[in-house]
UniProtKB/TrEMBL annotation:
This is ABC transporter permease. The keyword Metal-binding does not apply. PANTHER family: INTEGRAL MEMBRANE PROTEIN-RELATED (PTHR37305), MEMBRANE PROTEIN (PTHR37305:SF1). It holds the Pfam family ABC2_membrane_2. Coiled coil: none annotated. It comes from the Bacteria. Keywords: Membrane, Transmembrane, Transmembrane helix.
Length: 274
């Protein structure tokens, strides 16, 4: 495993574009978290300090940081599809196979690298969240601090599932731009199918069906925290209540899609004439 990861990292680090995107993908969420904890002066009219609004209190901070940090995954998505696109355009895939790398090892090298990226990003977000929370939170008891740490697991699986989907599209289409464009196509298809179910059945059933779609299932891992913040400010408004918890059934769905995407990527490579 280490040998395969080292082989892949060496390729990525020699590519300037990939190097920049990897650094941005790691640094951007961490920087945004740090900047969001600072005092912002709006032209001397007033000063906004998000920490005073209670959004960095434990345990809600785990929910907030993982939700917004997940938007940076698109930088890594470009790296993932580029890993495959460059293999085809530079003919390095065929050369690797000639040099003795099996097709299974080739796919595993990509997947292990994806796992590594997801793990490092999760650790960085976890450390940043913990540090900011310990500084700003009114609650520092261990039982409260680590109450919703499962959002980190959801964040990790969200990255892993999304990158595995990008890997499959890149293997299927062979071109980075097409693979990224097909993510938009898939998103549109999911919502069109959901709309048909809403029209033909009912809204709740349509959402249940949608929860099994690839992109929707990944999105469902971490629900938006804005409504939850409103609930803390207006606890008397019962209509704001919603289920924001991390459900392991949702994680299981994403695990299933991740395994399927990696398997299909391998099957495509195995059957393809290089």
């Amino acid at each position: 495993m280490i040998r395969l990861i080292q082989l892949e990292l060496q390729k990525l680090w020699l590519n300037r574009t990939s190097k920049v995107l990897i650094l941005i993908g790691f640094v951007l969420p961490f920087t945004v978290l740090i900047l969001s904890s600072l005092k912002i002066n709006f032209f001397g009219l007033f000063t906004l300090e998000l920490g005073e609004l209670g959004i960095f209190n434990f345990p809600i901070i785990w929910h907030i940081t993982t939700y917004f940090a997940a938007f940076a995954k698109f930088f890594f998505a470009i790296v993932v599809v580029s890993m495959i696109g460059n293999e085809y355009s530079n003919k390095t895939l065929k050369q690797n196979l000639i040099d003795g790398l099996s097709k299974k090892e080739f796919i595993l090298s990509k997947f292990f690298t994806i796992v590594l990226f997801s793990l490092i990003a999760t650790i960085l977000i976890g450390v940043a969240t913990f540090c900011i929370g310990m500084y700003y939170s009114s609650y520092t008891e261990a039982s409260i601090v680590f109450r919703e740490v499962e959002f980190l697991l959801a964040y990790f699986m969200k990255l892993l599932g999304f990158f595995s989907l990008c890997l499959f599209f890149a293997m299927w289409l062979k071109r980075s731009a097409f693979a990224l464009a097909f993510l938009i196509v898939l998103w549109l298809v999911e919502w069109i199918i959901t709309g048909i179910f809403i029209w033909r059945t009912d809204y709740e059933f349509a959402l249940d069906v949608q929860s099994y779609f690839p992109l929707a299932s990944m999105s469902n891992l971490i629900d938006q925290p804005i409504q939850r913040l409103m609930m803390t400010k207006f606890p008397e408004k019962a209509d704001l209540a919603y289920d924001y918890a991390v459900h392991f059934s949702e994680i299981a769905i994403v695990i299933g899609w991740t395994a399927l995407f990696v398997f299909l990527s391998y099957r495509l490579l195995k059957k393809r004439d290089l």
